[in-house]
Amino acid sequence: MAEKLYIEALREGLREEMLRDENVFIIGEDVGLYGGAFGVTKGLFQEFGENRIIDTPISEAAIAGAAVGAALCGMRPVAEIMFFDFFTIAMDQLVNQGAKNRYMFGGKAKVPMVIRGPMGCGTGAAAQHSQSFPAVFAHFPGLKVVMPSTPYDVKGLIKSAIRDNNPVVFVEHKLLYWTKGEVPEGDYTVPIGKADVKRDGKDITIVAGSIMVRRALEAAQKLEEDGIDVEVVDIRSLKPLDLRTVVSSVKKTGRVLIVEDDPISYGWGAEIAAGIAGSEAFDYLDAPIKRLAGLDIPIPYNPNLEKHAVPQVPNIIEAVREVLR
Amino acid sequence: MATIVKMPKLGTTMTEGTIVKWLKNEGDPVKKGEIYVEIQTDKVNIEDEAETSGVLRKIIAKEGETVKVGDPIAIIAEADEELPDLENVDNISTQSQEKSPQVFQQEDKTEAVKQTISDKIKASPAAKRVARENQIDLSKVTPSGPNGRIVERDVLSYIQEHKVKATPVAKKIAIERQVDLKAIQKSPGQRITKQDLEDQIIQDVDNAVDNTIPVIGMRKIIADSMTYSKKVAPHIYLSLEVDMSKVIDLRERLIPLVQAQHDVKLSYNHILIKAAATALRLNPLINSSFTEEKIILKQHINIGLAVALEDGLIVPVIKDADKKGLAFIAKETEELIQKAKSKKLLPDEYHGGTFTITNLGMFDIESFCAIINQPEAAILAVGKIIKKPVVIDDEITIKPMMNLTLSCDHRVIDGAVGAKFLQNLKQILEEPINMLL
Amino acid sequence: MTLSREKKLWMYRKMHEIRNFELEVDRLFKANLIWGTCHLSVGQEASAVGAIAALDEKDMITSTHRGHGHCIAKGGKLPQMFAELLGKETGYCRGRGGSMHIADLEMGNLGANGIVAGGIPIATGAALASKLKKDGKVTLCFFGDGATSQGAFHEAVNLAAVMKLPVVYVCENNLYGMSVPFKKASAVENAADRAKAYNIPGIIVDGNDVEAVYNVVKEAVERARKGEGPSLIEAKTYRWLGHSKSDPRVYRTREEEEEWKQKCPIKRYRQQLISEGIEEEVLNKIEKEVEDEIKKALEYAQNSPEPKVEEIMEGVYA
Questions:
Q1: Domains and CATH numbers, chain A
Q2: A299 to A116, A119, A120, A306, C66: CA distances (angstroms)
Q3: Chain C residues with CB inside 8 Å of A62's CB?
Q4: What is the pLDDT of residues C10-56, one digit of tens each?
């Protein structure tokens, strides 16, 4: 095992899959010589050449559409959308085409593509470059959505996503790229559709995703000093959703706080909350289910306002205390 | 005007940079806009331009050195200018003040819905489940959760406080007869049965004992030894009355002398000890000890005097009472009594007795039968001196009479033997001058 | 169309304002005083100023992520511009928009845009409103070479052409999208060649010649105002600095950059003005005034208050 950056682990996963399967190619804006806007594909153009690392004009609809078409024909494209916000430009191709082709064609087609990009605020990129809305894609039948929070998970999940025969929306986060973690050498996968208990505890369950997993773990460490034992469940996969892991945890602790990056209204946390309330965990709830999420505003530019727009570690700590009252 | 060049921010996420290469040396002239250094950021290498013209007077960050954004890397100035002191360089770190975000939460609009009727008990699902599983009436549980909500720990506490394991029949009887199951003592985990309940009911009727005294220590010893004594020794009781006129008189006369000699007050008990010792010399069988094989006739006459304590009694022993004078007996007795009362008696001082005297006269007891203090063979119970009408020479006269009751272990002492001792004792007390013999 | 001296000096001043503003922003960024990133238009001053000079004050523009120049030319005040970049309450967007979202509807600035080609359908809509209201306004739509690859470009230009809307589409072709050169993003050599697809005039102009830009745009604006529909103008230019602040420019050579720096639009115009008889002192005075203004504007911004966190929810809904 070695300690690697999230972005390195992701790059490694992409590279290993490209070596393993010649049908895998990367397509997107500035992914070639430039190495990707965030540097994810750095070095890959030099290794694999312009036929497998494909630069495109600024055309998200075309990128998504081309990926759908190539996948229908047996390739395994990995499309990069520079900022998650631009997924909106690709919506028709992804949602009305890619998500539905298999079903519409009576199961006689498959669309083994990955479309990936970074969401989230914290870099001052302002309203149109800082959004988080992975839940939107989980809402469309036919798509899978994963949200890795650690270097270990990102490498394992990109491999699983590429090998999966369905369109997978692969949700990264800008602030995660330069975080570190232990990553084993060589080939391994992380299953799509399985949540992961990142920290065992008995007093309260925090269900978190993406960057919020790190913040929840930090909060848990601080709360430990006060004798509060927090269990952190990394939801990891929004579609398929692993409700069972969440329910077991809530049955154990009796209390749950959901922490998410996206705005609170109609966020993925609402799905989890409904899932818990409707499960056998209901009889084990000792406090109402609590959600901590982004404010219902576009992300502001000013750095202080930007910080307040989404949950930070002190907010998580306070929310835990409130649930435990 | 010298310029302290600081590590520039060359990328949105850059926090520190490494000097890859200086394209100029110290002393070289630099023009504004000229590329003069190559810097590596977290992602790429970038060539930076000089922001001012002059001479590169000093290179502060060497090639290969990593420096935080905003920290000084070089000084550009005129060729002959004096260089500024680097200590005064202040580093501009991130503009955004690192104040931890104030906890700012979107108002929970659901709070606006005020609670109307709250006849319903508020309890969390977990609390309800536990209550259900344990047949707990939620209206009896005190809530500790927010907004008056009963939470799981409240129900668990209630259960703990009211923890009772009982068979269904027992429970039924308990309810019918209004018995508090908690009052029935049982080992932990053991179920209360119907029998326990019936015993408890009887017990409740029998004693409304509010207080209890633990049977430990001295109490236990007394309980055990008295029970034992009664069990092994068949007691017979011989009783007579003694005219104490002459003893009273004698005592009156001796009190000041004893006081002067030993600073103690001569009491009836002291005289009794001496008298009994004298009588025992004449009746050695009374001063003995029974064993299965033999009766041991004790050499020494060690008389114990029962002393009442706050929570029991103890019998200090006056050794060789027959060989000691009255005054000395008085002194020793009082010392022992003091020690006894302050619980300072040594084992030696309450072991080895051969005969015991117990006096309840000060409590108005006229006569009583004492239990033999094993391994002795007899015990003398002394009552109160009471003026009574007696018949002497067919005439009624008033005399101060005192009852003596001798308990005898019939294994050793037959009635006549005991009677004889008592008779001797009576004679001695009614003619105290016999104590001189 | 000869320009008045006043107009010429105005254009000269505006180009200086833009150049100084952009360089100051660059300095601030390197000194770690600007949050996020910035897309600077150093080298592209003439296409912004020349085009906007051809508008009436009531006319409208839409801008791009590289839009500081457009905003300043369209009347954007330096203090409020700096304040917005510093995230202050006194900025154009109360610190909530940042560099890419500066707008001033009163001045006819319908906003810079963080989405490539995001402003093109909006410009089409503004022109549609003008046609329906018959208010005689024209909308000038700025976008880059990269935007011509977006579907929104095709849809918006096509619609405007069909409806003969009063809009002028100005493509500032600085030869690169982000890192990908135009020739690798377009099958046609010039963006203006695409005009044929919509049956509208397509005109190429030297984007670094401010008066040339003015002339071409003026014609197109008049066409639009007369109801003859949109035009597509391609101003060939170059951005000196990288795409954004994280761009090490590995995709082009330093020689190419130097070549274009020689063609600096401001230097050229200065020479031109002097050759036309404008006194150097006048030009120097303008430069000095701009320098002072910049200083004052930055000071204003730096002394401005931060937005209040308690007001973070304001402005989402009307």
A1: 2-183 (3.40.50.970), 196-323 (3.40.50.920)
A2: 21, 12, 9, 6, 20
A3: 149, 151
A4: 999 999 999 999 999 999 999 999 998 899 999 999 999 999 999 99
